[in-house]
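[Automated response] Your request has been received and processed.

Submitted sequence:
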Amino acid sequence: MPLAVLAAAAVLTLAACGGSDDSESADSTPSASAETSATPEPAETSGAPAAEQTQLKVDETIQDDAMGDTVKITGVVRDFPVTSNTAIAEGGGEWVLVQIDATSGEKYSGGLSGVFSLYTPDGTLAGASTTIVDGDMEAAGFTPFEAPDAGEQGTGWQAFQVNTRADAYQLQYKRLGANVIGSDQTIPTKVWKVDLPTS
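Generated structure:
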């Protein structure tokens, strides 16, 4: 049976980038003396040490009956160390990884097309999904998540850049609204919320 085709009603592009600050150090020249010599004191190190990575199991399932999609959330990693971009952690943020096991339905073509985001419990956006640390993830043994095509399954880890670290997070999965081409059927936007464990 041929697959119906969806015309997306909205397109959401998420991008995340991390910046780094250049630090300057001033060299002081001690004055020379025939009898005494000045010993410069060692420079003090500023900044709190980075938090240690923690990994927790999750057992939550999102069932999208309208699209025929199933999205399972099976794990979360807090304070993932990113050597290619240390500015986020040094600035009070963190990198969060969420393990996703998704199966895209066969009702429509296009595959899994929802958007994942992290929020704080009070509903404030904490971080957008990003692929800029995929290299660090692969080096650490975390396979990046790729959305599966229609009728396919995909498993992996989705990274989120969090600029301001929070005690707890809520994962939100947003299905974008769409029109079914060749019919008057519409699929509304819907959001699922999953509270991620803290211990």
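Summary generated for your ticket: The mean pLDDT is 82. The helical segments are 87-90, 134-139.
If you did not submit this request, please reply to this message.
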